[in-house]
Amino acid sequence: MRQAVIGGALLVIGAVCVALGLLPLSDLAVLADRVVPVLAFVLGLTVVAELAADAGVFDRLADLAALVGRGRTAGLWAAVVALAVLCTVFLSIDTTAVLLTPIVITLARRVGLPPMPFALTTVWLANTASLLLPVSNLTNLLAVDRMGLDGPIPFAGLMVWAALAGVVIPCTVLLVVFRGRLFGRYTPVSVRRMTDPVFFWSASAVLVALVIALTAGVAVWVAALAAAAVLVVVAAFRAPAELRPARVPWSTLVFAAGLFVVVETLHTTGVTEPLVRALTGGTDAGSLLVLGGAGAAAANAIDNLPAYLVLEPAAGHEALRSAALLVGVNAGCLVTPWASLATLLWHARLSSEGVQLSWGRYMALGCVVAPLTVVAGVLVLGA
User: Fold this and answer.
1) Which keywords does the record carry (predicted)?
2) pTM over the 0.85 mark
3) Are 115 and 109 in contact, with CB atoms under 8 Å apart?
4) What is the mean pLDDT of residues 302-319?
5) Which pLDDT score, from 0 to 100, does residue 26 have?
6) Both ends of the chain: CA-CA distance in Å?
7) Is pLDDT above 60 for 160?
8) DSSP 266-329
9) Are 17 and 161 in contact (CB under 8 A)?
């Protein structure tokens, strides 16, 4: 609700800026042409992920992770890492932080393990593993066209080593911090029965088809909306009670739309020009580290999405500079609670599950893992 209120206020401010001529209608039209497909993708993917969760797809994957672990805590944790990475890469950061987190917590409790190491794994990897594909993070979708890359495969080719650093370093820190809890044994549990096999297999098939479409270069918003339409039709017959207006991410859409308009106004009026000029540079390691560091600092100050939008002109249309900025805003947003919307949503799910983590401890751990991940991610971009 708070996000929707802020987004509504931003839209009002944007409307006033348009009325006063601070943001010309021609610039607004160009902005709309760029961001409407992105918002359509967010809408479609959110509906697909929510209905797939209702169908029990993520529950089943979590149970399979418990079997893969073979009674060893480290094995279960490794399976959760793989699940979180795959979920983030193909279904976006929010799916992992919001939908996978409570499922992983429930899984840990079912096998008698402390949930915190697994919960922290999901939120860190939701952010840091979201570097590999355009669909993994909203910032990536905004950046991919400016980078001059033709589709998801070239994007992945540029980002693969940074994405790998975004997985390896947080996991290494987690292993050190929770070494006393991640090595031991647990009693495996059986895979739960499907409550509605038709809904489950339909949702699974839609997810597989969506992943194939997104990696094959189909327009992401077309693929997401088509998948959502198919799954809504299935749910109308198999689980009509799940088709609620709350399934539509109204708050996120309003917030993002308002943010786009206001930041575009700041660019148009030249307010951000001094900052952009100060960060403009080349593609040497030092310049890339400065830009990535600025992205991380801005993300922890004002949230990673507005941080990317404000600093985007400093990256220009240079692929390596845009990549360094993405590393900063995506992998560096692990310190403050508001640095990533997914982190705030994750903490709300954590609290609703009765798992307590103080923001003080979260920030202290973030001060360790964020700089290491950003520096490593930027330095391996040239690899």
Assistant:
1) Arsenical resistance, Cell membrane, Membrane, Transmembrane, Transmembrane helix, Transport
2) yes
3) yes
4) 88
5) 85
6) 43
7) yes
8) HHHTTTTHHHHHHH---SSHHHHHHHHHHHHHHHHHH-HHHHHHHHHHHHTT-HHHHHHHHIII
9) no
